[in-house]
Amino acid sequence: MLTLLKLLADGEFHSGEVLGEELGISRSAVWKQLQQMVAELGVEVHKVRGRGYRLANALSLHDVAVIQAAGTPPGWSVVALESVDSTNAEAARLIASDIALPALVVAERQTAGRGRRGRQWISPFAENLYFSVLLRIEGGMRQLEGLSLLVGLAVVEVLRETGVAAAGLKWPNDILVGRRKLAGILLELMGDPADVCHVVIGVGINVNMQQAAEVDQAWTSVRLETGRLSDRNVLAGRLAERLQMHLARHQRDGFSAFQDEWERNHLWQGREVSLLSGVERIEGVVLGIDALGALRLEVNGVEKSFSGGELSLRLRDDS
User: Fold this and answer.
1) Does 125 share its domain with 192?
2) Which of 11, 16, 107, 233 could make an SS bond with 66 (beta carbons 3.0 to 4.6 A apart)?
3) Active-site annotation holds for 181
4) Shared-domain flag, residues 273 and 224
5) Residues 287, 245: one domain?
6) Is 47 one of the catalytic residues?
7) Which of 160, 180, 304, 314 is catalytic?
8) Domain that holds residue 251
């Protein structure tokens, strides 16, 4: 079935006869595979008498060689999967293997993709980038300071180079265009953070998605912003390259080296916001972040810092 999908990925018409010859099967078997593909992968196929079959939208399928050639640093392992529960979970399972690290995992789809605070991450087949990197961290807590914010900065930089000029950061782990979400980040830690541990950096980017009724918040995609199909392999390779550069600088200089740059890219800098922590609601004005990546707010004329995985930031006028 995946071979058939690759033949149709260009979005052009292909006759059943030619597809059958390529696959070594009958035209009726081609039709059965197409029906299975539509049912299992959720792709839309158009059938026109005399012309054959084509996908409603061209697809950019993952290719390890292209990901590596697009900028993936030497020595990184790259794993590309057709389907997985989540790329973060798969990356975590690699800890028990002898794979060379860092290890990058991408997938055409996730059946149980996860965002922050246990939320579902919608993961349609071959449309978006589901990207996780497994790192071994040595040197204690300093190597983890502001790490998720650092990743967000790398994502924004690559997205802007891709043509999404308005992409920006929202503390702590979102990338937005205006108020529409374009990407999110989920970091997961395993082991002893005071000694040697592993970190999975998970990044989800809406790349070529054009509709998704099941998403319950305002969103956008690279394709909606640029008007063109993006190669997810090139995006993955460039992001891996930028992450490597920022991680090396972070290891050498700490997160404070990125503090000013992160604040320049924060869309809500100076805005009135509400910070939610469980049932508690804190009103304030965003001053920026500190050298560890904590949010600095002016609350009733006093500067306070906040950090933690269960915090949620909203604009004051956002219901």
Assistant:
1) yes
2) 233
3) yes
4) no
5) no
6) no
7) 314
8) 64-263
H-run or E-run covering 287 = strand 280-289
Q: Which of 170, 181, 232, 242 is catalytic?
A: 181
Q: Residue 211 pLDDT > 90, yes or no?
A: no
Domain shared by 102 and 88, yes or no: yes
Q: How far apart are CA 296 and CA 94, in angstroms?
A: 37
CATH number for the domain that contains residue 78: 3.30.930.10
Return the SS3 of 24: coil
CATH of the domain at 43: 1.10.10.10
pLDDT tens string 179-190: 999 999 999 999
What would the mean pLDDT of 46-51 be, rounded to a whole number? 90
Do residues 34 and 142 share a domain? Answer: no
Q: Which amino acid is located at 243 in the chain?
A: L
What confidence score (pLDDT) does residue 319 get? 42
Mean pLDDT (the chain, rounded): 92
Alpha-carbon distances of 255 from 66, 121, 149, 198, 265, rounded to whole Å? 31, 28, 9, 18, 15
Instruction: Identify the domain boundary among 219, 234, 263.
Output: 263
Catalytic residue among 114, 116, 170, 238: 116
* DSSP state letter for 213: T
> Residue 37 — very low, low, confident or very high, per pLDDT cuts 50/70/90?
confident
| Residues forming beta bridges with residue 105, ordered by sequence position | 79, 132
pLDDT digits 0-9 by tens, 246-301: 999 999 999 999 999 999 999 999 999 999 988 889 999 999 999 999 999 999 99
**Number of structural domains the chain divides into:** 3
Q: Is 116 a catalytic residue?
A: yes
pLDDT at 116: 62
